[in-house]
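so i finally got all the pieces together for this one. its two components total, 443 residues if u count the protein bits. some of the lines might not be protein, just check the labels. i wanna see the whole assembly predicted at once instead of chain by chain like last time, that was a mess tbh
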Amino acid sequence: MIPVSVITGFLGSGKTTLLARLLRDPGMARTAVIINEFGEIPLDHDLIETSDESFVRLSNGCLCCNVRSDLTLTLGELAARRKAGSVPPFERVVIETSGLADPAPILQALMADGELNGVYALDGVITVVDALLGLNTLEQHETSRRQAALADRIVLTKSDLQGARPDAVAQRVGEVNSGARLLQAVRGDISPTLLFTGGSYGLSGKSADVSDWLAHEMHAHTHAHESDIASVSIVRDEPLHAVTLALLLCALAENCGADLLRMKGIVNVAEDPQRPAVIHGVQHVYHAPAWLPRWPSADRRTRLVLIGRKLRASWVRALIELLEQEVTRESARHG
Amino acid sequence: MEQAPLRAFLADTLALWGVAGDVQQGRGPAVAEICTANGALVWIEPASDDAPFRWQVRWRAAGEAPGAPREVRPRACSSLVGVLAAMREALNVERGSAVRIVPAPAQT
């Protein structure tokens, strides 16, 4: 499987600078790059110097609006050309979205497209946030908040500039998505090993990955911003029945709609308590639960992180509790 | 299932959907009665113990007269998920999509 990483961030946040610098790192050799620009005169590809073993593809139009026709076809064509030997045997794909793109449709296409699924695995989402203007951008533009909300890693840029407010931006970003790992890069200087895991969007089965994205979510807190994007964390001591988990995913997809941007979690399933199930989804599309071989730590509680708009922790907790009560009673009734 | 937590959950659900209304204890078999600002009424009743489903939901949509079709012939629901689906139909709430489970990527 070829890992695919998505670099996103609002207009002018520093995505291209970051990518250009990353591609100069020897560890990024054999990387195929897809740049999605939103504008009549594409420029970003001219700003990125590619080595012999990395190359640039351009997509016209906005990826999140034309995700089927553009991204799917481009990735499919790349895979075919790689197989035929007409392009270098790249081992990683990096997609730089346009600054106005909503990453969710891109992630859904990567997760759910049957043809892509056999070749590519989504590695993660890297969101670039500008420490100089990012606070205002996050307040003014929902797209910016959605980009931050869907991130696995958030890279603060321009913190060296006069007037930058990295601490305030970091705090706001943490309110939107406290589960993402927060990093800083001045002029794009950051090690690729901090950004790319080689896994698959938190589902790699590596205990360390699971621990990493749950590490910041242990306090069962919620950051409430009325009509805004926020993360909700749920910690539950008792195991859940597998049926409860299935019903929960249905209920979330059907009742939260596009307001639920992302959900991920590690679940203690009553039928198999010795190993946890990892769940992960974007809006209504979920990967089938993946089972880790063992619990990553002594903490065997179910932990869920939901990121979305208008979500209330009390609603999610009550939903889980009521569904589990219902399933427990039905199980007892039918022996 | 305790009735007060269920009613609190249903009230939170209305808020999530952006529907103005309240949830009260229902009369008769109804454990919850939902009354929205635009006049819709929904009654949620537990099914009898020998029924092959757990809930039944009756409603009178906004603008309908008493004795509306779904008030007379309730919808049977096998779980709370079904109750929420019936409520969305009764209240004309457009929300999300059916959940879609896709294969997890192969481990590398």
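Chain B has a mean pLDDT of 90.
Chain B is about 30% helix and 25% strand.
anyway lmk what u think
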